[in-house]
Specification:
By secondary structure, the protein is mainly α. 77% of the residues lie in helices and 0% in strands. It is globular and about 60 Å long. Residues 250-258 have low confidence and may be disordered.
């Protein structure tokens, strides 16, 4: 893999997330702390799922292709469930932390709203998830072998970059919807978040038929993103103002904590 391909794929995968971080999070130390904490929680979920996966593989029959395929599906499902479990645990922790910050604050409002926390923690989950996706891509690029030498798709790195970008954005959207659902106790919404997460993860089994995984994934990105927009207090009116560059207030940068 050439340097141009590497940096190009990195820009595709992390460009939108880095832009969001710089414009909405980087200037607020409190948001940066919560983002790093969110990334740490995702890392903990990965560590636990990796431990279970390692033990399961060791006790399984490594020569059975059917059993190994079943273990792969089990690993994906387990990883998703653990990620969402840790997201719920992080939500509970943030609620307690926000109450403590309110007691220490001289103001009557919370220093950071639950909607902002949902966005920041979701982006933290996405950053760490994307970082590990890039590590896997780099490991594959070292070799041995050449991508597409047997007639397979030559767009492995490009497709992986677009998939990584989708996963990062989805974690951000899932975080907003998840926290809003917990606040309103809409448990069916939590189920939809978990199911959509499972669906996107299982779509990667379509690879190397990248059209079969990327197209449905980006449809889900659009739908969940629209859902997260309305959950975060958006409306058709301010969406129109934003698209026509007539709205001077940023949804998150100038949002008053509740």
């Amino acid at each position: 893999m050439t340097a141009s391909v590497f940096f190009g794929c990195t820009f595709i995968a992390f460009g939108p997330a880095i832009a969001l971080f710089l414009f909405t999070i980087a200037r607020d130390p409190l948001r940066v702390i919560f983002l790093i904490a969110g990334a740490f929680f995702w890392l903990c979920s990965l560590l636990l799922s990796s431990l279970v996966w390692f033990i399961t593989v060791q006790i399984s029959n490594k020569e059975s292709s059917t059993q190994q395929k079943g273990l792969l599906i089990f690993g994906v499902v387990l990883s998703v469930l653990l990620q969402e479990t840790f997201r719920f645990g992080y939500y509970k922790l943030l609620k307690k932390a926000n109450e403590g910050l309110l007691m220490l604050s001289a103001e009557e409002t919370m220093p950071i709203s639950i909607r902002q926390l949902a966005y920041v923690s979701g982006l933290g989950f996405g950053f760490m998830s994307g970082a590990f996706s890039m590590v896997n891509i780099l490991a594959d690029s070292v070799g041995p072998g050449t991508i597409g030498i047997h007639g397979d798709s030559q767009h492995y790195f490009l497709s992986s970059a677009f998939m990584t970008m989708a996963i990062i954005l989805l974690h951000m959207f899932w975080g907003v919807v998840f926290f809003d659902s917990c606040e309103k106790q809409h448990w069916w919404s939590l189920a939809v978040v978990v199911i959509s997460h499972l669906l996107v993860s299982c779509l990667t089994f379509q690879n190397p038929q990248y059209v079969g995984s990327l197209v449905p994934t980006y449809i889900i990105v659009f739908l969940v993103g629209l859902w997260a927009f309305f959950c975060s207090g958006g409306s058709l009116r301010n969406l129109k103002l934003c698209l026509t560059c007539k709205d001077k207030d940023f949804l998150l940068a100038n949002h008053r904590p509740r």
